[in-house]
Backbone:
């Protein structure tokens, strides 16, 4: 008997999130600050002061797309162990919109899956389609 | 055999459920619905694959693993009988 299922992706693993950020935003590992204890993000104007465990400083945020970012973007670990994105409203309309977040989330899912399967000695391949979907195949299963 | 997975535009994953992938590491598993059945037909001495809600036998084999592999291949993302959410 087989069952279909859906997995609502949640940012639980720090390393997979870093890899997904590097892939989606084009950042180097050095451009992603990692803090065990959340530190303050630099925010502009009326944006609320916030702290995060992972921070990409605003000077690097729109670097690849040449879109100036107004604030740092960050991810803070909540009480359930999940990382929540902190992106200002203005940057969500510019460099980090819903489409970008969907892409980041998908890349995170892929990186998590890839790390899990590699640890089991299997290889993972990915095909991207124009509509933004990714198809993942796993080989090496015995 | 491990089923193919699909990641949608929002970053959520769609697949046949399997314990060969740590799905819980990716996020919250939800919307679990039955796709097909593999039952033993004593009269024919074969394992038969049927779609949920139908008694039509789509495939049969004396080897249970072969029947299950056929089921994964044909009800999975790229399969002929896939009826999940959307296709690539």
Residues:
């Amino acid at each position: 008997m087989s069952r279909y299922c859906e997995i609502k992706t949640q940012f639980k693993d720090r390393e997979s999130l870093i890899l997904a950020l590097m892939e989606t935003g084009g950042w180097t590992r050095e451009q992603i600050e990692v803090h065990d204890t959340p530190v303050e993000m630099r925010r502009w104007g009326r944006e609320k002061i916030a702290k995060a465990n992972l921070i990409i400083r605003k000077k690097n945020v729109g670097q690849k797309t040449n879109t100036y970012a107004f604030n740092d973007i960050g991810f803070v670990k909540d009480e359930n162990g999940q990382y929540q994105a902190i992106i200002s409203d203005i940057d969500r309309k510019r460099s980090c919109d819903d489409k970008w977040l969907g892409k980041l989330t998908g890349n995170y899912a892929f990186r998590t899956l890839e790390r899990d399967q590699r640890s089991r000695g299997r290889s993972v391949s990915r095909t991207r389609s124009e509509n933004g979907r990714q198809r993942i195949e796993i080989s090496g299963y015995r | 055999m491990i089923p193919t997975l699909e990641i949608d535009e929002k970053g959520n994953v769609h697949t046949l459920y399997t314990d060969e992938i740590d799905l819980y590491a990716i996020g919250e598993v939800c919307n679990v619905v039955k796709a097909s059945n593999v039952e033993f037909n004593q009269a024919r001495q074969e394992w038969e694959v049927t779609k949920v809600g139908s008694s039509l036998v789509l495939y049969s084999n004396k080897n249970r693993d072969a029947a299950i592999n056929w089921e994964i291949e044909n009800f999975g993302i790229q399969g002929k009988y896939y009826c999940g959410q959307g296709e690539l």
